[in-house]
């Protein structure tokens, strides 16, 4: 059978390592790459290699960038007193697409997870704590609504909140725009009620 070939097994396994890609999806991707003209496979491999070579972590915010420091960290239009902490670069990208936030970012590259051996030293917590001392007035913790994300938010609030004059806030979690209450799960509704504000 085709998938018993070692080269194809390695290709499928490489695709399976991508987030959200299961065995069937990995097999479909592998078959697509192998069935496509050779130029497409070459373009894909060259794009991967070039991106890996050119994209680095910003020395200030730890986000992925093609210049160091990144354009957000060097922008004069950004509020340097606001610092939004996210787990992954995708979190900063999502907030940036919204267009409402005009401060700086800090990317942790994960969340605390003692069971998997991920503590503060495996994340970019130390650079974050150094940055907080540089005139930041508010740290917005925008970690995910998972057990690990909540634990990370609590840890950061304790570490940063001990510093004088720095507010630590958490993004609100609640019912999505355009959705009804009957479609929200219990945890989402609980967060929405806890994060309520006066009209």
How many domains? The number is: 2
What's the pLDDT, averaged over the residues? 90
Shape label: globular
According to CATH, what is the class of the largest domain? Alpha Beta
Radius of gyration using CA atoms only = 21 Å
What summary fits the major beta sheet?
A: 4 strands, parallel
Helical percent range?
40-55%
Q: How many helices does DSSP assign? A: 8
- What's the SSE pattern? HHHEEHEHEHEHEH
CATH architecture of the largest domain: 3-Layer(aba) Sandwich
Write the CATH fold name of the largest domain: Dna Topoisomerase Vi A Subunit, Chain: A, domain 2
Query: What is the end-to-end distance?
Result: 64 Å
Q: Tell me the β content.
A: 5-15%
Keyphrases for this structure?
199 residues, alpha/beta, Helicase, Ruva Protein, domain 3, Dna Topoisomerase Vi A Subunit, Chain: A, domain 2, four-stranded parallel β-sheet, two-stranded antiparallel ribbon, 8 helices, 6 strands, 13% strand
Can you tell me about this structure?
The protein is of the alpha/beta class. The chain folds into 2 domains: 53 residues, RecR Domain 1 (Helicase, Ruva Protein, domain 3, Orthogonal Bundle); 114 residues, 3-Layer(aba) Sandwich (Dna Topoisomerase Vi A Subunit, Chain: A, domain 2). The protein has 8 helices and 6 strands; from the N terminus they run αααββαβαβαβαβα. The strands form 2 sheets. A 4-stranded parallel sheet has the order 4-3-5-6. Helix 1 packs across helix 2. It is globular and about 60 Å long.
